[in-house]
Amino acid sequence: MAIKEFLLSSFHQLCFAQRVSDYFTNLFSPYVEINFPESDEYRLNHAFSAIETYLGSKATDKSKHLKGSQVKESKGLVLKRDEVKVRDEYKGAHIWWEIVTSADGERSYKLTFHNRARSLITDSYVPYVVEEGKCIEAKKKQTKLFTNNPSSQWVFSHNMWRSIEFEHPASFETLAMDPEKKEEIMNDLVAFRNGKDYYKKIGKAWKRGYLLYGPPGTGKSTMISAMANFLNYNIYDLELTAIKNNSELRKLLTATASKSIVVIEDIDCSVDLTGNRIKKDRNSMEKNGEQDKDENTVTLSGLLNFIDGIWSACGQERIVVFTTNHLDKLDPALIRRGRMDMHIELSYCTYEAFKILAKNYLDLDDHDDHPLFRKIKSLLKETKISPADVAENLMARNHQIDVDGSLNNLIKALEKRNNSQRSQHERKNNKFRIFG
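Now predict its structure.
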């Protein structure tokens, strides 16, 4: 027992001596340290990513540790520094950067410099590094597609989102839609992108909501891709069914970056957000002290806060997009003007939309000269067919364009669809005559 007490006493004395030694070392050390963590609570620290970009851009000719990557086959090999410590120099001052990872996985950049350069570093060098990093990021920015991870995979504020490079080629030029409607949407997007001062003036968060609705295959996902490419914004594809409650929803929201499009596709199918909710009978579970831990409890009020409540202001220049095939199933409070500012109906293929598809797939610039166009125009007026189905019939077989063959295939498909829709309509009318 005496030996145990002696060892414990010695240990405490050693720890105390170490703390005293560290105190005096720090007290008299001529060096200053500044830490830049990757995140602050649940919000991304944009200075961290700017510093990472800046240090990664430093010349690699003198570096002994490099890493190579090739994102696309068409691009050359990219070499970057792969060093824990990086030395820099600024107006005669020597600076050392070091990437540090804590026991809980939190990453941060540690900046070390001599105390005599404190004013130079804090007033001039750090702002220079951050701005330089942001400029480099803007020049080489690659649009990314993010999707949320289940909360069981979160490590504190990390790993909420995973991403890949977004390489969808959609553009408004190739989007099958009436030109006037397309122009209206593009003008609205440009006004939003340039509206920072306006939103500040009227006292509203710099965000905008778009509701895309219409039958399947009418181009809702393609519209989102075109919007992202047009604005050069990242896409956050929010999977509501992977979120357990409103608190997790808020954390995910605050972890998204500005200049982004937050998307909830098929919102009528994601969670029960309809006006007439069917309340589950939980009495039996409560009596037994049981609850379904995996049950999704994201509520309508939680989602409304996400759209235009207090939490919607956690980030600037953000677009929110909902898509649905069944507009009538959504709660009116969710899609009212002011929350979903612009309602965009993406419906069946029109003749104007067809001409764009003919240009995309068949390289037909002078549309009206082709003799089969008049027949297609007549059929499109009477037939409900999605742009996706029209595109499928126009697509070249074995990459060999056959204009007449593709147009005739489309005409056959339209006639078949038209006959089917007429038969359904007649059966419905006969049914009403019998029971009416």
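The two ends are 98 Å apart (CA to CA).
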